[in-house]
Amino acid sequence: MNRFYLLLVLVAAVAGVLMWVGSRSGSGDVSATSAGAPVVVTAADSAFQGYVLGSATAPVEVVEYADLQCPHCGEFANVQFPTIREQLINTGQLRWRFRDFPLNFPWSRLSALAGQCAGEQGKFWEMEDVMFQRQSVWGSNPRNPTSAFRDLARGAGVDLDKYNACMDSQRYAGRVEASHREGVARGVTGTPTFFVNGRQLDNTRYGNSDAFQHLVDSLTGKGRR
Amino acid sequence: MRRRQAIALLALVGFCIALYLWFYKIGIIGKLQCGSGSCEYVQTSRYGALLGVPVAFYGVAGYATIFAVAIAGLQPSRLTRRWPATALALLSAVGFLFTLYLTGIELFVLHAICRWCVGSAVVMTAIAVVAVDGAVRK
């Protein structure tokens, strides 16, 4: 009988060790990304100009540098952006360009990669929406959000096999890094940071949809009528 | 007694598998070690949760219950009692049916196989065979 209980303890110990080893190797790719391991930036990475929403002929373009784990970005995306999208982007007055600017949150770069891997399948904006909507859940949880991102990707209509392959390869790490370097070169220090037709805005003044409406009106001449 | 020992041992193995899958589902483990299987696809499919609870957690709870009953039935005062064998047969039958449902989903709906799920299915089937055999023979 004692040998039997010894066997149970042995099985539990072996399983525990295997699980611990498995969890360490499984999260290695994520840690490397989050810890800012050296990333190779290619010419193609630098050439990518971000995901764009809106008409190519819109008179005003906003470039937003954002971090998908940044709470201010999440608040802006969830509260203000839907109105901006409906009233300005969908009406052809404004074009919106999203650029990754990962800060030092634990999952900043991983979340940026998730967005890029969804974008590879033409689902960037759908993924961005759900990631910001659920940011309070995955963003405030110290646990690895890889699985949560997959759930969100599935909800966004992303093909998971391709998504998984993309995340495993980290093939857009260079693109994210290039975007970050571009932001630094343009003087971005925090997120969200907006540039309107190339001019950096004062974040404290342009954090809501009304401000963007006034801005677009002034740039298109409507404000003077 | 041998049957209950075998069931306890198998339930412990099944518990570890289910715990591993549950840890993945709740984010403690970032990536499943699955070889060329489709573990993550299956786990992140809409069938990876039932009534809002990860399927793996049902496995954790189920195997833990079977393990506890088997260990309880191994106590000297209960070795000759019939209820542990009956309880184990009933629990494992429910577990086996649930396993059949999940395997059916993998094969005919998702068209993907999760190796850990197959491992759990084999363990649960073995438990059911031993438990039902034990209940019938007594």
Structure characteristics:
heterodimer; A: 225 residues; alpha+beta; five-stranded mixed beta sheet; 11 helices; 5 strands; elongated; B: 138 residues; mainly alpha; two-stranded antiparallel sheet; 5 helices
Provide a compact summary of the structure.
With 225 residues, chain A is of the alpha+beta class. Chain A has 11 helices and 5 strands.
Secondary structure blueprint with pairings:
The complex is a heterodimer of chains A (225) and B (138).
Chain A lengths: L1 H25 L1 H7 L8 H5 L3 E3 L6 E7 L4 H19 L4 E7 L7 H12 L4 H10 L1 H4 L7 H10 L4 H10 L3 H13 L7 E4 L2 E2 L8 H12 L5
Parallel strand pairs in A: 2-3
Antiparallel strand pairs in A: 1-3, 2-4, 4-5
Helix pairs in contact in A: 4-11, 5-6, 5-8, 5-9
Chain B lengths: L1 H24 L13 H5 L5 E2 L2 E2 H19 L9 H28 L4 H23 L1
Antiparallel strand pairs in B: 1-2
Helix pairs in contact in B: 1-3, 1-5, 3-4, 4-5
Note the main sheet of chain A: 5 strands, mixed
> How many whole angstroms does the radius of gyration of chain A measure?
21 Å
State the shape of chain A.
elongated
Query: What oligomeric state best describes the polypeptide chains here?
Result: heterodimer
Mean pLDDT metric of chain A: 85
> Stretches of chain B where pLDDT falls below 50 for ≥5 residues?
none
Given the C-alpha coordinates, what overall shape of chain B results?
Answer: elongated
Order of helices and strands of chain B: HHEEHHH
Strand order in the largest sheet of chain B:
1-2
Low-confidence stretches of chain A: 26-36
Portion of residues in beta strands of chain A equals: 5-15%
Radius of gyration of chain B: 16 Å
Number-wise, the strands of chain A total 5
H and E string of chain A: HHHEEHEHHHHHHEEH
What is the structural class of chain A?
A: alpha+beta
Mind summarizing the main beta sheet of chain B?
2 strands, antiparallel
Q: SS-based structural class of chain B? A: mainly alpha
The residue fraction in helices of chain A comes out at 55-70%
Helix content of chain B: over 70%
Give the largest interface pair and sizes.
A-B, 29 and 27 residues
